[in-house]
Amino acid sequence: MSVLSTWRLALRIARRDAVRAKGRSALVVAMIALPILGVSGADLLFRTGELSPAEALTRELGAADAEFRVEADGAIEQTFEGDVTTWLEDSDYTTPDPAADLALVTGLLPPGSTILPDTSVSQRFDVGDGVVRAGLREIDTADPLTEGMFTRLDGRFPEAADEVVVTEHFLAESGLAVGDELTVGDSGVSARVVGTYELPSGLDEDEVIALPGAVIPRLGGDTAEHSWSSYLVGVPDGVVDWPLVKEANTQGVVVRSRAVTLDPPPASEGYGSNFSGGSADSEFIVGVGVVVSLVILEICLLAGPAFAVGVRRSRRQLGLIGANGGDRRHLRAITLASGVVLGAVAAVVGVLGGVAVTVLARPWLEETTGSRFGAWDFRVTELGAIAALAVLVGTLAALVPAITASRGDVLESLTGRRGVRHGSRVLPVVGTVALLAGAAAALAGAVTMDSSTMVAGGAIVAELGVVALTPALVGAFGRLGRRLPLSGRLALRDAARNRGRSAPAVAAILAAVAGLVAASTVLVSDEAQQRAEYSTAVPEGTVTLYTWAGETGTETDLTRARQAVERELPVAERADVATVDIGYACSTDDCGYMAVAVPEASRCPLDGWESAQDMTVEERRRLAEDPRCVENIDGGMSNLTSVAVAGPELLRLLGADSPEALAALADGGAVVFQDGFRDAAGEVTLQLWDTSPDWDDATGAPVSEPDRSWTFPAVTATVENVPAASPEAVADLLITPETAERAGLSPVDMATYWSTDRMPDAAERRALDGAMEQVSDSLYWDVERGFQSSTSLPLLILTLAALVLTIGAAGIATGLAQADSAADLATLAAVGAAPRVRRTLSGLQCGVIAFMGVVLGAVSGLVPGIALVLADHRTSVGWWDDALESGWVSGGRPELYLDLPWVTFGELLIGVPLVACVLAALLTRSRITLARRAG
User: Fold this and answer.
1) Side-chain half-sphere of 195: how many Cα atoms within 13 Å?
2) Strand order in the sheet with 593-596
3) Exposed, middle or buried, 885 (CB in 10 Å: 0-12/13-18/19+)?
4) How far apart are CA 107 and CA 913, in angstroms?
5) Residue 639 carries which DSSP code?
6) In this predicted model, what pLDDT tens digit does every residue of 754-774 receive, in sequence order?
7) How far from 921 is each of 179, 305, 817, 852, 918, CA to CA, in Å?
8) In 569-673, alpha helices (H)
9) What is the pTM assigned to this prediction?
10) Main-chain phi, psi angles of 726, to 5 degrees
């Protein structure tokens, strides 16, 4: 029989078997089709979301031929696209002058050209219950040149000077509706909202459009100076060529030309960014290859047992083929054909499903990404390659069962006997070698070579080694069954005796969990570093209100602002803070200066770049880890103020009200927040210069003697819930108003701190923003939110993905086990086993497989996770060493932050097997119907 005839017959048999075993076929198709669905959907999504140059230009320029923008007072050079400019000699900044800029652009264009000004400025808008910041744009949206730039959603575009149109995002943010009025800042200029629109590439932009000259000229002040303008241009022949662009550059004008961007001139005529070369990042290619390989491996591990069960169900059929002259290649072809048929079905389902899901999810995806996609872009070649991958995966999944089927004994197949099967002795040895070699390579890449590629490669080899060891490990787990009750003993022994279906499922769970543990280890270690390095001055939930001391109207504004904070926010205790007046109202460059003196014993011996250059590398290394240089106490305006004048209520609010600190304030002493400010006698010195002192260029410290100085006995206070390594504090020095008065110091009001009953919500913060805008532009407020973890959502997504995959793999193995052991279950029912035994057995079968996979995956995932953390730390240490070699000293040696995802371990080791066990038990029927009576 020819090869073609063999495969034609094999495909017919495979199609018939697939139709007969609909449940098993649907299971295999689903396992292969799901990742194909994701890949084909991602391909279509990427191609459609990637705008063509023409589409991108339409969104930016509309129907205009070019955009002109006056950037400099002098000649410039630009790239072909106009996205990068270089100012030539004698060029300078230019102050916006709409009339002069329009005249300049007009003079550059040929007769008959059309020019449309487009002016924008950032503004505050009073929306009734607060203030919203947004861009104010003046452009004639009725002009044909704007076609494609804006998409009207509701109402209409403005037609009068007192009308505006706003983006849908601004409308949602402000709480307004079409027909409402809004006020621009505190100018009193108001306008009515007559419609909404969207920017195709900026769905989350807050923007307001008015007619040209309708709002911005009426705002007054320096608004016009802070605006920026561009000019959309249409020329008679529709082409703004490169010579015209270069001529505009000589006048300081940047041009974004449609013709030049779409058809750039030769690179010799400019320095455009249209590079023709460039190769893809090799590490990225390696990463993609690794991911694709792991996905194929995962599918094969999940689908392989289903093909193995199919082969077992078809043993008699295969035996008859062998008895009638069929040889091993015929038996292999029949089994492989099952993979081809189901892979082809999965290819069609996956590709069509991916396209359908992308079409249905497009609106949501556009809203999520904040940008509309371009025209649909179906790449038939790429989708065909994805479909071919599905067929390949199906064939690979059936490869091992096909080899097993071809080696089966014909007599055993016809009589139904399984014979005696022994586990492979070679596979565990290969797995052990691969595990040790891969782990060694990963750790070597992390500790000695700084190679993420080697870490990833070693981790994959180690994981494949564990996969190879899985059958032996499953057998070892089976020996634990003797200590369990009946259902548990049956579940473990069934998994151990039928490793052909249980080991691949355990390996699939292992691979997924290993990836989760590795990623979780990197994430939680990175979070541990961020948490340790997080710097703050006040406890979490503290509200801070401050202004720059000495500004006109400060005291009145602070009073009004304090009232607004207490009215709008859920504040509790309050502490007002003043500082020492050193001539803050001075309007010259020769104003006073104040600093807390740093004792000689607390000074870092490094005085700057020059002194570091004079030292050896070892001296720089030693000083870099010296606490004096790490803390780097400079004693000069390091925070809001160098000296805070406040009562003990500030210490209570900060949680720093130790008996020693309170006693020091009461006795006329001082409190410092860094111990380095105290000298050997436990005192601190405040220095004041009436005029600006002379400065040391190398260190930045004053070198002239202070005009006045005061010495106070001091104690060091530690702020509650503020990291000990935090270099920040509310001030360097704290004294009471009474102590300041006795010293002849003049306090000036500057800040207030409040504790809160709870964290203010968005509405309260917006209301306070609006109230502050009515008080003064020189007031600032903030709420300390504490360290914000950014790993919770990624960890949750990874855990849920692992949970779904684990339950799926364990469920598949459990379903195959039930189908494979139907006779055993019937025997249990016949001998009087309670109905709940079947349900309990099913749940434990699923739970046992899940638990074995989770345990092995958690252990094997630690190798790449720890290796990646070590590699990242070694890279940081390398940068630090390079900085020391070059003479830079920037803090101590980077610390190693290695944390393990204990919460994830708990969810995986307890939660996942338990959920799998419960779900399998609930979805299993307790009773079965006996086909015939025993005997």
Assistant:
1) 18
2) 593-596, 683-689, 708-716, 670-672, 731-735, 641-645, 571-580, 747-756, 543-547, 779-783
3) exposed
4) 76
5) S
6) 999 888 887 888 788 878 877
7) 59, 21, 14, 18, 5
8) 609-613, 617-624, 627-631, 648-654, 659-666
9) 0.65
10) -65, 125
